[in-house]
Write a structure and sequence with these properties.
The structure holds two protein chains of two kinds.
Chain A lengths: L3 E6 L1 E2 L2 E2 L1 H14 L3 E8 L6 H6 L4 E6 L8 H15 L3 E5 L2 H13 L5 E4 L1 E3 L6 E6 L4 E7 L4 E5 L17 E3 L10 E6 L13 E5 L9 H10 L3 E4 L1 H5 L20 E5 L5 H7 L4 E6 L12 E4 L2 H20 L1
Parallel strand pairs in A: 1-4, 1-6, 4-5, 5-12, 6-11, 7-11, 14-15, 14-16, 16-17, 17-18
Antiparallel strand pairs in A: 2-3, 8-9, 9-10
Chain B lengths: L1 E5 L2 E3 L7 E2 L2 E2 L6 E3 L1 H17 L2 E8 L4 H10 L3 E6 L9 H12 L6 E5 L10 H9 L2 E12 L2 E8 L2 E8 L2 E5 L11 H7 L4 E4 L15 E7 L8 E2 L4 H15 L4
Parallel strand pairs in B: 1-6, 1-8, 6-7, 7-13, 8-12, 9-12
Antiparallel strand pairs in B: 2-5, 3-4, 9-10, 10-11
Chain lengths: 327, 257
């Protein structure tokens, strides 16, 4: 039986997040030829509709309300439920982002449904769809399926490919009126710490520093390299414990689990807890003075050397490469 | 203040994972309190010491989980509850667990419920928000700071590296993020005292729940280990040449930059 699938489109700093387009691709596969309906919630979100459609959504339903300007679980659940009630879908897909993680269990609880979180791959389609997700922070994986009722999944950024963009695709964009009220959470202020706007969990490239970086200043060249590569910086627990950087940058079993295309570990020895957080990256580069460091065992490419010598050279090489691309 | 902490017994983070007969092998493994739940316990004790009241730690599991509950009591929690599902349920998912916890808490009138933002084994992070929704109370996830004044609550919440300054009120459920506090180690007197603190053990029957009421909505059909990574290449030669080679490999062989 083909399915109608709702996909929540998430925006960040005035742009649709890539994970939402990946969610559209996941929804398409789950739908088995059914319908993929994008859901956009916010104070002004119409402008994101066409992008979701060009990437595979069949049509879009929006809920616009002043109380949806900022995400709150109360506001967004009211908005989403208004669309859910109108559409009665058989499946729902969210991104496994801060917002998706916060909102999806509330909706699943409202609907007394299961919820398969943090999916990294989907096998089969429609009623036969099986979802692969990491457990023990990626030390193992499980295949999960829905037993009954609504199928609800969240997908991890960077793992499921988006569909090809088709600029000729069009679809209906409609809106649902909803009274968004009684918000129990007030967001008084947002302090932005992620300086470059690339979130580590969605970044294609992550440059991570460990104790070997030796100081907060030592992270600056790493940030420069990450910026050049359009990526984000991360850290080992050791570096966070030593106050070289904020805990929000920690990669590992406690901390973030990431799967970028390219992970560059700098001055990181490779404790098992850290490796759980990054070992499923597509390409792993290790830069460490100690040739015996555990991280070399999972690295695709390694340089045994002093990071304070290697990183500046690498910045120069990448700059040269970028200059070539432009010319 | 009536404070509850939801805790889970998990594998130690040092453990390597192996599979036996299609399941994660746990013989000989070390178990701990889920590290994020430790932050929740520490915060609960701090709040109680400041505002008075009682901290109850709650877990679902089998009798092995008593050890982790005793550790929480040794840290300073006042009471513990073990909901033992071993005889009743073979399979549970997040729907089942939240329903059981929600059923237990529904007539307990909690002012504050704390939990870890995620358990490092299952990794779904669903239980906190699900329980809050079942109890129809507000929740805030991944918090790094908690201040309570009467029923007013100020929270700092970590959102993908940014910080949200949040204002809300009790009753409330929060889930702990790293950075919230530094969990204490149980002291020797604490450990001695913990042995005499009340630990209540319940089964589904005691909650007026049937197996059908909490039947899982999802099922795990297979568990597997990631493919072992082949050993990579450690480059050789002058550092400057190695770096040139690395950038070339990343661009032309791996095609990731």
């Amino acid at each position: 039986m083909s399915k109608k699938v709702l996909v929540l489109g998430e925006t960040r700093e005035g742009a649709l997040r890539n994970v939402s387009l990946e969610a559209v691709a996941a929804a398409k596969q789950i739908s088995g030829g059914g319908e993929v309906v994008g859901v956009l919630l916010g104070d002004s979100v119409q402008s994101f509709a066409s992008e979701m459609i060009q990437y595979g959504a069949d049509r879009i339903v929006t809920v616009e309300h002043a109380n949806l300007k900022q995400y709150t679980s109360d506001g967004y659940s009211q908005g989403f439920m208004a669309v859910y009630e109108q559409e009665s879908p058989e499946a729902i897909v969210f991104g496994h982002t801060a917002l998706g993680k916060d909102l999806s269990p509330k909706i699943a609880s409202k609907l007394s449904s299961g919820l398969i979180s943090d999916v990294t791959a989907i096998e089969g389609e429609d009623d036969d769809a099986v979802f692969i997700r990491p457990i023990y922070s990626g030390k193992a994986f499980e295949k999960v399926k829905s037993k009954e009722g609504l199928l609800f999944v969240t997908i991890r950024p960077n793992n499921i490919s988006t569909l090809e963009k088709d600029e000729s695709r069009t679809g209906d964009v409609s809106s649902v009126e909803a009274d968004i009220k009684d918000l129990r959470t007030i967001i008084a202020e947002v302090v932005r710490k992620s300086t470059e706007g690339v979130d580590m969990s969605e970044a294609k490239v992550v440059v991570a520093g460990g104790r070997g970086v030796r100081s907060a200043e030592g992270f600056e060249p790493l940030q420069e390299l990450a910026n050049l590569l359009g990526g984000a910086i991360g850290a080992s627990r050791g570096a966070c414990d030593a106050d070289y950087c904020d805990y929000s940058l920690q990669i590992g079993q406690t901390g973030k689990v990431i799967t970028p295309d390219l992970y560059i570990g700098v001055g990181i020895s490779g404790a098992i807890q850290h490796m759980a957080g990054m070992s499923n990256s597509k390409i792993i580069v290790a830069i460490n003075k100690d040739p015996e460091a555990e991280i070399f065992k999972v690295a695709d490419y390694g340089i045994v050397g002093d990071l304070f010598e290697v990183i500046p050279l690498m910045i120069e090489e990448v700059k040269k490469l970028k200059a070539k691309k432009v010319s | 203040m009536n404070i509850y902490v939801l805790v889970k017994r998990t594998f130690d983070t040092e453990e390597r994972i192996t599979i036996k007969n299609g399941e994660i092998a746990d013989d000989g493994a070390e178990f701990i309190i889920n590290p994020y739940d430790e932050y929740a316990i520490e915060e609960a004790i701090t709040v109680r010491d400041e505002h008075g009241g009682e901290v109850t730690v709650l877990t679902i599991g089998n009798e092995d989980a008593e050890k982790q509950l005793r550790t929480a009591l040794a840290m300073g929690a006042d009471k513990a509850v073990l909901i033992n599902t071993e005889d009743d349920l073979d399979e549970m998912d997040e729907f089942s667990a939240a329903k059981i916890i929600g059923e237990y808490l529904k007539d307990k009138d909690p002012d504050l419920i704390l939990a870890g933002n995620v358990a490092i084994d299952g990794g779904s992070g669903q239980i906190g928000p699900r329980v809050a929704e079942l109890l129809n109370i507000n929740y805030v996830t991944t918090i790094t700071k908690l201040e309570i004044d009467g029923t007013d609550v100020k929270i700092v919440r970590d959102v993908e590296g940014d910080s949200e300054m949040i204002e809300t009120s009790l009753p409330l459920l929060v889930t702990a993020q790293q950075g919230l506090n530094e969990p204490r180690y149980p002291s020797l007197p604490g450990i001695m005292k913990a042995k005499r603190k009340p630990l209540e053990e319940l089964e589904l029957d005691d909650l007026d729940l049937d197996e059908d009421d909490v039947e899982a909505k999802t099922e795990t059909i297979e568990i597997f280990l990631p493919a072992a990574k082949a050993a990579g290449r450690v480059l050789e030669g002058e550092i400057a040449d190695q770096v040139k080679e690395l950038v070339d490999l990343l661009k032309n062989e791996a095609k990731v930059i």
